Amino acid sequence: MNEVEACVPALRRYAIALIRNRDEADDLVHDCLVAAISKLHTRRDDADMRAWLFTILHNLFISQRRRLKIRPDTMELNEAHANTASHPASQDDRLHWRDMLRGLEHLPDEQRSVVLLIAVEDLSYAETAAILGVPIGTIMSRLARGREKLRQYTESGIPQGPRRVQ
C-alpha cells in the first residue's frame, strides 16, 4: 500500500494537467485509487505499480471524456504548478515557463499526454505506450510532434484564440 501512496502526487499532477481543474482532478485520482485498490488482487506481482496506476487513471480520464463529449471548465496549468519551484526563477525563466505551460495547453490531448508522461513523470516510451494503449512508434511520433509544437510556441508565441483540438 505504501507503493500506491508514493504514486499519489504524480497521479495528481498528471490528472491536473489533463483536466486543468483541481477538484475534478482530485476526483479522478480518487476514482483511480478506488479502482486500483479494488483490483489490487488481479495485478501481476512483477508489474510496475506506477505504470499500472497511470494506466488506470488515463483509462478513467478517457472514459469520462467519452461520456461528457465536452471539455470541462479549465484551469491554467501554471496554477497547478505555482509552488513547485525550489528557488525563485529569474524573469527569463518565468517567461520561458509561462510560454511552455501555455504551449502545453494548446497541444492536442494525445500529444500533451505523451509529453507529460515522458518529460514530467519520467516514464519510458514502453511504459507510456502501455498506459495509453498505443504502439511505441506512435508514442515517439506524438512526442516529436509535441516537442516541435512546444518549440515553435516558445520561439514564436502561442496562437491567439481558443485551444484547437486535433
Identify the overall geometry: globular
The CATH class assignment of the largest domain is: Mainly Alpha
Strand content: under 5%
Mean pLDDT across the residues is 80
Q: Give a quick account of the main beta sheet: strands, pairing sense, barrel closure.
A: none
Number of helices: 8
The portion of residues assigned to helices is 55-70%
Q: What is the CATH fold-level name of the largest domain?
A: Arc Repressor Mutant, subunit A
Instruction: Give the number of domains.
Output: 2
Describe this structure in words.
It is built from eight helices and no strands. By secondary structure, the protein is mainly alpha-helical. It is globular, with a radius of gyration of 16 Å. It has two domains: 2-68, RNA polymerase sigma factor, region 2, helix turn helix motif (Rna Polymerase Sigma Factor, Chain: A); 89-156, Arc Repressor Mutant, subunit A. The longest helix has 21 residues, at 136-156. Helix 2 crosses helix 3 (49-68), helix 5 (91-106) packs across helix 8 and helix 7 (125-132) packs across helix 8. The model is unreliable at 161-166 (pLDDT under 50).
Quick overview:
It is built from 8 helices and no strands.
Defining traits:
166 residues; mainly alpha; Rna Polymerase Sigma Factor, Chain: A; Arc Repressor Mutant, subunit A; 2 domains; 8 helices; disordered C terminus
